[in-house]
Amino acid sequence: MKKKGLFILVMMLCSASIMVFANGSSEKTKAQSGETSIKLALWDYDVEGSVYPEVISQFQAKYPDIKVEVINASANDYETKLTTMLASGDGVDVFFAKSNTSYPTLVQKHFALDLNAVAKSHDYDLAPYGSVLAQHYIIDDGLYALPFRTNDWVIYYNKDMFDAAGVSYPTNDMTWEQFFTIGKGLSHDDTYGCAFFPKAGFIIPCLVGSVDGFDITTSDFSELIPAAEQIKAAMDNGSWENFAESVSLSKDQTYFYQGKWGMFYDGSWLTQLLESQDLGFSYGIVKSPYWAGTTKKGFATSTPVLINAKTKNLEASWKLLTFLCGEEGATTVAKSMLVPGYMDDSVMEAFKNSTGLDQSSQEALTNNNAYGLGKANAYLGLISGAMNQEFELFITDNQSAEQMASNLNKRRAEILEQY
After folding, report:
1. Taking each helix axis from N to C terminus, what angle separates 380-395 and 401-418, rounded to the nearest 10 degrees?
2. Per residue in 346-387, pLDDT tens?
């Protein structure tokens, strides 16, 4: 009995030794192979039409020694999940930010790596990103993200509606005043010549653009009163649909699909959606209108991609970041009929070929003088949220433009004091 017990003990020790050796051998083999594993966090990886799987597959083909583990979440849950992972030190290496307004908060919490040094060490050319970096990503001289996509806000218009009314098509040189006037002429019955997506955040860009250099974190909101009143007057006279009614009926871009809206102010992402629809009419695109007396410019948003400040795989993370946001990733994005952050002639030719847009529409989406809500900082998102709330009260006749401006100045002071 004792001999049997001793034999079992010896066998167990031998097995343990074999397991330790095997594991050590496995780790040694992995080290010898040079394989690096990195984690990439994003949202809606597997939704229909997602460009992410193809881009990641192309990256893996180019860099077989780097294994990308995708951490996916739904759009609604992503920001909460991302913050939790980054705060807990979960080992995320590269991650997407939900928007360029939420991005500064990630920087403030020290989750993001300043890319200036690594970009300089790789002699990486930042010119193809245009003005987006300066507008959206540079904070106190630090660069903490590159754009995967950009979205210029433009006007989509129904050519058939213009033809039927005998009205000339809008141009890339149209003011907001002309936009509302033309829209009024096209409106009849339950059809409107102008349209906004019925959410305050989709109309605010038009408002902010009324003052050159307006910054919602520092400028006096009373400067926006004249434009706010013009926007509301255009709604009241029937140029565009009553905001409250649109909200109550949950109206969205499908009303443009149905031929109910002559001109629709929206982001360049709509191109991909339009190309997937059987519209029954021809459409075109022109640059965003600008307010008379101001610089010709259009609102733009972007999708930032960042490297975790605590990554232990900087070189592999940089390769992934610059693949996603560089020429190779941008070409794939362009072929999917979305506008990438990285733009050069070959990338935009791929976009043109994928969409079949005419030359005028192509020009509407390129070489734009873009503006944002203000200089990137951690308070941009909070102040933007307050602005949406106050504007909605104004556009639904629950307060005057003067009250809106006064409330916003007060609320911003409270936000800045609190944080």
Report:
1. 160
2. 998 898 888 888 888 888 888 788 899 998 888 888 999 999
Q: Name every residue whose Cβ is closer than 8 Å to that of residue 21 and which is 6 or more positions away in sequence.
A: none
pLDDT tens digits, one per residue of 183-239? 999 999 899 999 999 999 999 999 999 999 999 999 999 999 999 999 999 999 999
Separation of alpha carbons 385 and 395, rounded Å: 16
The answer to whether residues 394 and 404 touch, using CB atoms and an 8 Å cutoff, is yes
Name the burial class of residue 90, with classes exposed (0-12), middle (13-18) and buried (19+) by CB atoms within 10 angstroms of its CB. Answer: middle
**Least confident interval from 18-22, 60-64, 128-132:** 18-22
Query: Across-strand partners of 194?
Result: 240, 263
DSSP designation for 397: T
Distance (Å) of CA 46 to CA 43, 67, 75, 102: 9, 18, 11, 23
Q: Which residue has the tokens 């006037």?
A: 181
Alpha-carbon dihedral angle through residues 129, 134, 136, 141, given to the nearest 10 degrees: 120
Q: Are strands 261-267 and 283-286 parallel, antiparallel or unpaired?
A: unpaired
Six-digit token pair at 379? Answer: 């308070």
DSSP letter at 112 equals B
CB 387 within 8 A of CB 398: no
**CA 26, CA 23: separation in Å to the nearest integer?**
5
Residue indicated by tokens 């976009």? 351
Close Cβ partners of 217 (under 8 Å, ≥ 6 residues apart): 374, 375, 377, 379, 380, 383, 412, 416
Q: Can you say how many angstroms the Cα of residue 403 is from the centroid of all Cα atoms in its chain?
A: 31
